[in-house]
């Protein structure tokens, strides 16, 4: 049912791909880099798939020129990567490590020389271990000063060449996984501590954004939020209420704070009654309002289908499928509020993520309606098993289909009137999945390594590499 004329992608649309420092760089102790919480966490037995770590990862630190050459060949207009805080400040604060600055200068210059727009994430989860040890990382308000100082150091060093900054990557994920699900550092399960740490992360985010605006740097800045829109499973008003609860709990609880500087009333009241609401001062409120982003970064992978969940005997939070064995995850929820359930219209990936391109259009529409900000899609992609054939080809037609359908959904949203700045898929090369090792692959470029061995880390272009090259050449005209 279409009611409108289809628009074209804007001519300056940022067709791109993404990565994150810990997942690609390797060189974890080189050139003065300090240790991050992930460098330590991966060494705790049983925490990652087959004990994988990012010590070498895909060795991007030494091979970035080869990787940028591949980006250039593919025709990328933008590349999103993150800066490792521990390369700039090995101890999280104090003395700047010039060698860290030099590395990112070389990378940014290489991108620009190849006419690729750098999209720079300041924080993609690799918190300096020194700050975790000194004051508990995100649990102390001291981090607001240290993160802001780190961010300002990056703005000053790279801001003459960078137009798009991402402040925090998926705050909702690193906070919930770190302080509730125990699957990310610091592997705590404590609701009160979680909401306190989350509030402090909000302050750090707002402070970095405010500093960026006060400093009149070029370009814009925003957080990247992992938004999985919720649908009620059917028209039963009880399920509709549950879906409304879910949106407040899982989405507005972050995005409203970013844009309006306030928490959704219903969730804040619920937390207050549970005794787990964060302490908010008047100064906090002022800072949150002052740190409004220029765009919303959207990481979109899937939707959730929502049903009512009884307070007594209801389903609690379930662990994620980190095995790659389809059908091994179960319903997850908050008793009395909502639970996720199966959607008969959707298929799943091998890791049980719902495949739902239309959901991306819905995500874009909802963000546009509620926040009225341009959206930069900073992640979207398919984690799948890929097979390297003997002739070194990789026939990932499933990924081509997945991305093609999502690009069509973006085109629909643009035609609906949403301002979408760009689309940086997850990911450019294959990389280390935090909890799933190297078997769950996302890239356009295959990296020949596995959990057991880094082998020679050779790069091979997948079929999707050539397909996306053509999409970019045609500016998404023929999908
Ligand atoms: C996002 C993260 O949550 O999802 C990425 O920003 C991550 O860093 C990606 O790799 C995919 O997750 P996973 O668990 O499939 O590797």
Automatic annotation (TrEMBL):
Gene3D superfamilies referenced in this protein's UniProt entry, alphabetically:
Glycosidases
From the UniProt record, which GO molecular function terms apply? beta-glucosidase activity
Protein's UniProt name: 6-phospho-beta-glucosidase
**Residue numbers annotated as active site:** 379
PANTHER family from the xrefs? ARYL-PHOSPHO-BETA-D-GLUCOSIDASE BGLC, GLYCOSYL HYDROLASE
Keywords (A to Z) from UniProt: Glycosidase, Hydrolase
SUPFAM superfamilies (UniProt xref): (Trans)glycosidases
**What family does the entry list?**
Belongs to the glycosyl hydrolase 1 family.
Known Pfam families for this protein? Glyco_hydro_1
Q: Which GO terms describe its cellular component?
A: cytosol
Q: What's a BP term from Gene Ontology annotated to this protein? A: carbohydrate catabolic process
């Amino acid at each position: 049912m279409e009611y409108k004329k289809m628009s074209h992608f804007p001519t300056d649309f940022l067709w791109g791909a993404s990565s994150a420092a810990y997942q690609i760089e390797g060189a974890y102790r080189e050139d003065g880099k300090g240790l991050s919480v992930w460098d330590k966490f991966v060494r705790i037995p049983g925490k990652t798939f087959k004990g994988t770590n990012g010590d070498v990862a895909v060795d991007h630190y030494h091979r970035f020129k080869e990787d940028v050459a591949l980006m250039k060949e593919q025709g990328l207009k933008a590349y999103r990567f993150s800066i490792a805080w521990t390369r700039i400040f090995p101890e999280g604060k104090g003395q700047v490590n010039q060698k860290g600055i030099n590395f990112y200068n070389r990378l940014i210059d290489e991108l620009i020389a190849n006419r690729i727009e750098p999209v720079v994430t300041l924080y993609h989860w690799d918190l300096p271990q020194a700050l975790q040890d000194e004051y508990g990382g995100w649990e102390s308000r001291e981090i607001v000063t240290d993160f802001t100082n780190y961010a300002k150091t990056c703005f000053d060093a790279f801001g003459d060449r960078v137009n798009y900054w991402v402040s925090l990557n998926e705050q909702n994920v690193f906070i919930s996984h770190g302080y509730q699900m125990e699957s990310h550092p610091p592997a705590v399960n404590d609701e009160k501590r979680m909401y306190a740490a989350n509030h402090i992360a909000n302050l750090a985010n707002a402070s970095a954004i405010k500093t960026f605006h006060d400093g009149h740097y070029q370009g814009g800045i925003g957080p990247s939020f992992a938004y999985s829109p919720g649908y009620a499973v059917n028209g039963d008003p009880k399920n509709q209420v549950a879906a409304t609860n879910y949106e407040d709990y899982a989405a507005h609880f972050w995005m409203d704070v970013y844009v309006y500087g306030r928490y959704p009333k219903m969730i804040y009241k619920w937390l207050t009654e549970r005794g787990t609401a964060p302490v908010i001062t008047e100064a906090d409120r002022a800072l949150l309002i002052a740190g409004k982003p220029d765009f919303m970064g959207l990481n979109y992978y899937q939707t959730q289908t929502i049903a009512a969940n009884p307070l007594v005997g209801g389903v609690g939070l379930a662990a994620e499928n980190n095995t790659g064995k389809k059908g091994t995850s179960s319903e997850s929820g908050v008793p009395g509020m909502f639970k996720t359930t199966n959607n008969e219209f959707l298929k799943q990936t091998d890791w049980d993520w719902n495949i739902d391109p239309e959901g991306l259009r819905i995500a874009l529409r909802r963000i546009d309606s509620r926040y009225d900000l341009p959206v930069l899609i900073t992640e979207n992609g398919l984690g799948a098993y890929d097979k390297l054939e003997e002739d070194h080809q990789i026939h990932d037609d499933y990924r081509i289909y997945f991305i093609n359908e999502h690009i069509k959904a973006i085109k629909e949203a643009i035609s609906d009137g949403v301002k979408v700045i760009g689309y940086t898929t997850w990911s450019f090369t294959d990389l280390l999945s935090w909890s799933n090792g190297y078997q769950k692959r996302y890239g356009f470029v295959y990296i020949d390594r596995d959990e057991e061995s880094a082998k020679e880390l050779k790069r091979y272009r997948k079929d999707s590499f050539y397909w996306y090259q053509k999409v970019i050449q045609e500016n998404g005209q023929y999908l």
